[in-house]
Amino acid sequence: MAQMNMIQALNSAMDIMLGRDPNVVVLGEDVGYFGGVFRVTDGLQRKYGEHRVLDTPIAEGGIVAAAIGMGVNGLRPVAEIQFADYIYPAYDQIVSELARLRYRSAGEFFAPVTIRTPCGGGIRGGQTHSQSPEGVFAHVSGLKVVMPSNPYDAKGLLISAIEDDDPVIFFEPKRIYNGPFDGDPDKPAVPWSTHPKGDVPEGYYTVPIGKAEVVREGGDLTIVTYGTMVHVCEAAARRLGLDAEIIDVRTMVPLDVETLVNSVRKTGRCIIAHEATRFGGYGGELSATIQEECFWHLEAPIVRVAGWDTPYPHAFEWEYFPGQARVAAALRTVMEAA
Amino acid sequence: MRPSRLHIPKHHSRPGEKPDFSYLELSPAGATRRPDINTRVRDMNGLAFELVRVLDDEHKAVGPWNPHVDAADLQVALRHMLLTRAFDDRMQRMQRSGKISFYMRSLGEEAVAVAQGMALRPTDMLFPAYRQQGLYVVRGRPIVDLMCQLLSNTRDMCKGRQLPVMYHWRDGNIFSISGNLTTQFPQAVGWAMAAAIKGTDDIASSWIGEGSSAEADFHHAMLFASVYEAPVILNVVNNQWAISTFQGYAGGEHRSFAARGPGFGMAGLRVDGNDFLAVYAVTQWAAERARNGFGPTIIEHVTYRGAAHSTSDDPARYRPKDDYECWPLGDPVERLKDHLIRLGEWSEERHSALAREMDQQVTASWKEAVTYGTLTGPPRLDAHLMFEDVFKEMPEHLRIQEAQLRAELAGK
């Protein structure tokens, strides 16, 4: 075991896969010589060469399209989109092509592409460096969608994504690259070495796609969340002294319905929390699924906690971010309902 | 038979290596011909591969592209460039000391925005990227207003919503900067098409970096501009660097960005971007061409990004430390200064005095700006502003969320 932050864990996953499989290639803006603007690909080009780790032009559509072509020709591309906010020029290639290639060719063609992209706010990035568009991709049939909340899962899930023959959109919450974040920006930063999930095996292992994790068992209520919000919700529940069962969804598609349902049937109460905007967000899908499966066990309406339905504002980052206060309000509502 | 091979663009130099700009195709000052503004594209294709230069090594203005600008106007240009530089320099330091969250300097590229801003009419619509702050200086927006945007304070034109440097100025005819690359390039074409539909003689001008020309929106802009012969100037500021990758990764290795023009049937000019007079002259030419119905022009400005991409990266990681000092086209401020001195219209003393004056102006502006609040200090904008302007009228679901936020903040 080694101490790793999320950046090192993701780097390790790509390092291992580049070493194990000669068909794995990494491509993206500034990922080669420079090692990525967040250093996630640091050292990989030096180790595996310019034909395995490629700097690309600033063309997200081109990056994804080229990755599809490479994938069709037998490679296993790991494409980086520098910020999730910049993924939209590639949207047509992802939605109309990558997601449907296997389906429309009756399984004859497929492209095992992984698209890594940093998401989420909390770094004073304003509206162009803070978005959480996972719901936009979860809505598209044919894409697997993943978002880890810690270094251990990040590495294991990325290896699974690279080995997966289906396309995976892999969201990396950049606020927790260097340490878990409980939603309070005034507190000193905490490194991953203080967190059990900062212990990461140096070698190969996988965390399965499609499996949620019960982060904390509890009886009072269920909190269904993912990404940075896992840590925010843990802190909020602790502050209220609640015995919350916290579920880290980890994979938006395919969704591990069973883990959610078992928990909510046990607790009878549920809040859902994500950083993305609320309206039409992924939380709606979670809420509908839980309601359909657990209606007769619910003792209170499900409450969603999310970012407001506005672009992510630079000056009001912490008023926008669904921090502990917003989570706590939802927890109280659900606990106080009859 | 040999197998196909993957070509990887070769950087001219990396950290620890000697800067090498031998790849740059240069033309001597005054050597490039100046066609009439109504010249057919096929009769001027060669210009896209040459380099329009006016200032020679002796600081004289030479050749057919000499725009014969009055010395008084050149002194104004110097003032604009020095103010831009002093502003950039101070804002960089303010970011380093934690007063603002982010900044992007235009060091070494000041002539592009300043000369173009001066060559265009105030009614022409500008669609800049994030490194043309000189346009705001030329059009007379007080820098205290720009600082208020950087501080996201109570006088921020963006009402706290945008990352620093993403200014806008409707009354000054400068469009809102998005932050996403190249998106405004084809929008400028649409604006110009509207000018033609409405029958006005206004034109549009837009700027991107050479790295951003890789985005598909570059193609959209070129195509719509050429198909409709829109009155627009499309500028590619080739400052050699897109964060850590050099211009070869945007397709500039042994190729000209201006030459993308002729492929679309559009005039293409390649200009020394650090030569104020040359940039002024080609802009005047392209503006006149567009205004008189002879269609769009793509201008490649050959310059150098003297500073980091932004305050978020360290160029020492990807290019030699002395790369900028070795740049063969010099410094735009120094070159214009030397030209004015040669004309007998300027001196080192006046130059130093002007630089000091600009510094003092920046200092005074900053002192004023912070009285309107800072990113973290009072007075602060009311957070409810984040719910406004999502739509013209606030819908019910945002009213509810606004009330939730008020309750959330009251409970803290």
What would you call the structural class of chain B? Answer: alpha/beta
Low-confidence runs of at least 5 consecutive residues of chain B: none
Strand content of chain B: 5-15%
Tell me the number of strands of chain B.
7
Distance linking N and C termini of chain A: 47 Å
Can you offer a commentary on this structure?
The complex is a heterodimer of chains A (338) and B (412). Chain A is α/β, with parallel strands linked by helices and 338 residues long. Chain A is 34% helix and 18% strand. Chain A is built from twelve helices and 14 strands. Chain A is globular and about 60 Å long. Chain B is of the alpha/beta class and 412 residues long. Helix content of chain B is 36%, strand content 8%. Chain B has helices at 71-96, 110-119, 134-138, 143-151, 184-198, 216-227, 260-263, 276-291, 332-342, 348-371, 396-410; strands at 125-127, 204-209, 232-238, 241-242, 245-246, 267-272, 297-302. In chain B, the strands form two sheets. Chain B has a five-stranded parallel sheet, with helices on both faces. Chain B is globular, with a radius of gyration of 22 Å. Chain B starts with 70 loop residues before the first helix and ends with a helix. The relative contact order of chain B is 0.17. The mean pLDDT of chain B is 97. Classes of the chains: A alpha/beta (338), B alpha/beta (412). Chains A and B meet through α3 and α12 of A and α11 of B.
Descriptors:
heterodimer, A: 338 residues, alpha/beta, five-stranded mixed sheet, 12 helices, 18% strand, B: 412 residues, five-stranded parallel sheet, two-stranded antiparallel ribbon, globular
